[in-house]
Amino acid sequence: MTESRDSFARFREVLEAIGFRPSSSLGQNFLLDPTLHRVIAQSAGAGEHDVVLEIGVGLGFLTRELAAVAASVVGVEIDKRLFEVASRELAGFPNVQLVRADALGGPGGTIAPEAVDAVRSRLHTGGRLLVVANLPYSVSGPLLAELCCLDPLPSRILVLVQKELGQRLAAPHGTGDYGSLSALCQALYRVRILRDVPPQVFRPRPKVVSALVELVRREDLALPDPAARRSLARFLRALFQQRRKVLRTTLPRACEAAGLELPAHGIDLGLRAEALSPDVLLGLWAGGVARGG
After folding, report:
1. Residues in contact with 101: Cβ distance below 8 Å, sequence separation at least 6, in sequence order
2. What is the pLDDT of residue 51?
3. Which residue in 269, 261, 265 sits closest to 283, CA to CA?
4. First to last CA, the chain
5. What are the pLDDT digits (tens) for 114-161?
6. Which of 120, 80, 125, 75 is nearest to 95 (CA)?
7. DSSP calls for 61-123
8. Backbone angles phi, psi at 96, to 5 degrees
9. Angle at the Cα of 90 (from 15 to 21), degrees rounded to 5?
10. Which sign, positive or negative, has the C-alpha torsion 285, 286, 290, 291?
11. Closest C-alpha among 36, 96, 35, 32 to residue 64
12. Rounded Cα–Cα distance for residues 112 and 199 (Å)
């Protein structure tokens, strides 16, 4: 059980004293409900050997709850002023390491290398990497796509995102919400929406409802190689880029984008990509990889 934190009013005074104003472009909506912080931390299922990566530390409210259940927490914060406040507030937690960085600040928009290095330095045999975060709305999709390509691949991802994105992540094939990110995440994880989270528990209040989404790595996952997962991501992005086009047009372009040969298949090329399940799409990609060497 963590020590009770101070009220948000005290933190608001601290932020006002340094002239801080939340940035909508950075998605700075603070989750205030302490009960929900504890629920999220407990739902992550972190064990005594596990490392949690938190993207968007903010004022450290969720961080301190995660520190109570995980071996280590690596928190990433882009805002210098929030980083300094959180560093002071979390100074008493020896298992927390804060990294000031843009989480997508790596080469080509990949996960920041300093965050990846911090995770790897704390991850030991028998431990898992978990990602738990209140993600900034504006970069939630790209962040999740990059987490799917991360080395090591997170065992579980538990994130607060805009409800619309949550619905896309969990969407079944054959529906309008199903797309390249849906297919990529579902090829690697079992995805489900745990609960809706109303705007009232955030400050400032967002204009949309959020959702707590859980991604649990599939036990039958056959893609341990991060380079292979990145190739799959490129393949799926190109395949869904022109949603109204059929596979006869999109499949050759997707194979070219991923550096693959056109696979032998028994797929009806008159179908659109959205009609195919993640496992079927994974099979198409794998056929191109096998023929391409």
Report:
1. 76, 77, 78, 112, 114, 115
2. 98
3. 265
4. 52
5. 999 999 999 988 899 999 999 988 899 999 999 999 999 999 999 999
6. 75
7. HHHHHHHTTSSEEEEEE--HHHHHHHHHHTTT-TTEEEEES-TT-SGGGPPPHHHHHHHHHH-
8. -110, 130
9. 15
10. negative
11. 96
12. 29
* List of long-range contacts for 200-204, beta carbons under 8 Å, 24+ apart: 201/31, 201/32, 201/33, 201/36, 202/29, 202/30, 202/31, 202/32, 203/8, 203/22, 203/29, 203/30, 203/32, 204/22, 204/28, 204/29
Ordered domains of the chain (ranges, CATH): 8-217 (3.40.50.150), 226-292 (1.10.8)
pTM of the model: 0.93
d(CA 264, CA 186): 23
Cβ(15)–Cβ(37) under 8 Å? no
3-state secondary structure of 4: coil
Q: Do 242 and 249 meet the contact criterion of CB atoms below 8 Å apart?
A: yes
pLDDT of residue 293: 59
* Calpha distance 6→220 (Å, rounded): 44
Instruction: Answer yes or no: are the C-beta atoms of 74 and 99 closer than 8 Å.
Output: yes
CA gap 68, 226 in Å, rounded: 30
Chain position carrying tokens 């050759």:
252
- Tell me the HSE value of 50 on the side-chain side, using a 13 A CA sphere: 22
* Per-residue confidence (pLDDT) for residue 267, from 0 to 100: 93
Q: How many CB atoms lie within 10 A of CB 31?
A: 19
Alpha helices (H) in the chain, listed in sequence order: 8-17, 34-43, 61-67, 80-89, 113-122, 140-147, 163-170, 180-188, 226-240, 247-257, 278-292
pLDDT tens digit sequence for 168-194: 999 999 999 999 999 999 999 999 999
